[in-house]
Design brief:
It is elongated, with a radius of gyration of 14 Å. The protein is an all-alpha fold. The chain has one domain (about 5-110). Helix content is about 80%, strand content about 0%. Helix 4 (about 65-85) runs antiparallel to helix 5. The chain has helices spanning about 5-20, 25-30, 35-60, 65-85, 90-110.
Length: about 120
């Protein structure tokens, strides 16, 4: 049943749009200063999530969809590692790492559903 991973893809793409349109979300949760670099970071994360989410939503069932989900999991694990070690406060590091790890786990859990 590929509907479950497709929903994850659509949610990921929607988050990407929000990160592009409203960089204050990453700034606020990451406890970052409002700078050009922070807005650049939010835009990069947003574009990446928009593209990867769209790929998950549109990839053919089977290996292509499973691979798209695997890439998404890798992105989220990378976010957990980077944000979880580089954000300015321990509270922000824990919060963002937990969200990224949770999203990685959810996407990984949908991989068995990548086959029709």
């Amino acid at each position: 049943m590929t509907a479950v991973p497709r929903i994850m893809g659509l949610l990921t793409a929607a988050y990407g749009v929000s990160a592009i349109a409203r960089p204050d979300v990453i700034r606020r949760h990451g406890e970052l200063e409002d700078t050009d670099a922070m807005r650049l970071l939010s835009t990069i994360v947003g574009v990446r999530d928009l593209v990867s989410g769209t790929l998950i939503a549109l990839a053919p069932a089977g290996r292509p969809l499973a691979a798209a989900l695997g890439v998404r999991v890798a992105f989220d694990l990378g976010d957990a590692a980077a944000f979880g070690t580089l954000l300015p406060t321990s509270r922000a590091r824990r919060k963002i790492a937990a969200v990224a790890l949770g999203w990685a786990a959810l996407c990984a859990a949908t991989i068995p559903h990548a086959r029709s």
